[in-house]
From TrEMBL:
PANTHER family: KYNURENINASE (PTHR14084:SF0). Pfam families: KYNU_C (PF22580). This is Kynureninase. Pathway: Cofactor biosynthesis; NAD(+) biosynthesis; quinolinate from L-kynurenine: step 2/3; Amino-acid degradation; L-kynurenine degradation; L-alanine and anthranilate from L-kynurenine: step 1/1. GO terms for cellular component: cytoplasm. Its EC number is 3.7.1.3. The keyword Hydrolase applies. GO terms for molecular function: kynureninase activity; pyridoxal phosphate binding. Its cofactor is pyridoxal 5'-phosphate.
């Protein structure tokens, strides 16, 4: 009942998990993640909502407070803090996005950056009056676009998408026309984990002369990205999931070089102005990607993020993706064996190359089951109406941990019946 049946192994799942962990080339890196002093977590299956902190981040944050904040005080702005959004942005671009320097910047929340990029994008296509978005995109994306459409007198054209899958070229093509200004899509669907064919969808959008803005929140640092090669126009993503930046860590925005000169900032703050310390009358945008900035850089919010970038650069995104595929295939196979007989179904594409790093399982009892799992130290997400989402963060999650989590789901389902 899980969908496309995964091949079951003949040995016990415990033995299989142990063998996979022993063969995992990334296994040593799990020790670089911090656990709590009284750690009661049996299985952390929510790394796609909030990643675990790195041990290095605890030291970096304490050192920053003592030596830079306390020691340098306001001098720190002139000694490097002001340039961090561009420097960290370039690292995200190089390590995770397939983006050349000068196109990525860190600052604001995902919602605010999404608004800024989408609002600027529709101005880059004057005379066009439609914005395309899918019905199961993340709520913030839909709400922001509803607001922009109301501000600018635009029409939202909705692409109906299956919550068990995501947008494919055949779904998007009928919604596009010469009236389309902007298309906003998620690279990995927040609910199903569907991995969109970004290059093909971007080509479709460009064929009608429109721009595309990709939300990378559930794919960055879990799936290799090639924004420059795919000819992406704009992108946005958060840094507290697979980039492990911590609660509320700032988002990043990407604007392709070819659009920067005409990009007009809709939230005109002083640090996005040319020579902000001139304090002069009138807003003149800074050159390049700096013009996407508005206010004071979130320096503290970029500290832990830098440690995860160090780790990702060390291991490489191909290795991260390989581990992710193995983890999700293992979880799907165990769920087929243990949970399928209880009526659990897979609400995620069955083919590994069509999904990101998380799986969603569905059952009518999962809403009531989720707090009981949390009480047992098994921490997945619940997604309405009946989805249990398993976020399998490749660098911090073991196969044994996945197995322990699914065992708890199995046992609680059995108790329920």
């Amino acid at each position: 009942m899980i969908g496309q049946r995964a091949p079951l192994v003949t040995s016990s799942w415990t033995d299989r998990a142990a063998a996979l962990d022993a063969a995992d080339p990334l296994r040593a890196h799990r020790d670089r993640f911090l656990t709590g002093p009284d750690d009661d977590v049996v299985a952390y299956l929510d790394g796609n909502s909030l990643g675990r902190p790195l041990v290095a981040s605890a030291g970096r944050i304490e050192d920053f407070v003592r030596t830079q904040w306390a020691g340098r005080l306001i001098r720190g702005w002139d000694e490097g803090w002001l340039d961090l959004p561009l420097e960290v942005g370039d690292r995200i671009g190089r390590i995770c996005l397939g983006a050349a320097a000068g196109q990525t910047v860190v600052g604001d929340s995902t919602t605010v950056l999404l608004y800024k990029l989408a609002r600027a994008a529709v101005e880059l296509r004057p005379g066009r009056d439609e914005v395309v978005v899918d019905t199961d995109n993340f709520p913030t994306d839909r709400y922001v676009l509803e607001g922009i459409a109301a501000e600018r007198g635009l029409t939202l054209r909705w692409v109906e998408s299956d919550r068990h899958s995501g947008v494919e070229p055949a779904d998007l093509a009928p919604a596009l026309s010469e009236r389309t200004a902007l298309v906003v899509l998620s690279h990995v669907a927040y609910r199903s984990g569907h991995l969109a064919p970004a290059a093909a969808l971007t080509r479709l959008v460009h064929d009608v002369g429109a721009l595309v803005l990709w939300d990378l929140s559930h794919s960055v640092a879990s799936v290799p990205l090639e924004l420059d090669a795919w000819d992406v126009d704009l992108a946005v993503g958060c840094t507290y999931k697979y980039l492990n930046g911590g609660p509320g860590a700032p988002a990043f925005g990407y604007v392709a070089h070819r659009h920067l000169e005409e990009f007009r900032q809709p939230v005109q703050g002083w640090l996005g102005r040319a020579d902000p310390f001139e304090m002069a009358a009138g807003y003149q945008p800074a050159a390049g990607i700096r013009r996407v900035l508005s206010g004071t850089p979130p320096v503290l919010g970029m500290l832990a993020l830098q440690d995860m970038l160090d780790l990702l650069e060390e291991v490489g995104m191909p290795a991260v993706r390989a581990k992710s595929v193995e983890l999700s295939a293992f979880a799907a196979a165990v769920a087929e064996d243990w949970l399928g007989p209880a009526g659990v179904t897979l609400a995620t594409p069955a083919e590994p190359d069509r999904r990101g790093a998380h799986l969603t399982l569905e059952h009518p009892g999962f809403r009531a089951l989720t707090p009981r799992l949390w009480a047992r130290g098994v921490i997945p997400d619940f997604r309405s109406p009946q989805g249990l989402r398993l976020g399998l963060s490749p660098l911090s999650t073991s196969f044994a941990e996945v197995l322990a989590g699914l065992a708890a789901v199995r046992d609680l389902l059995a108790d329920r019946t």
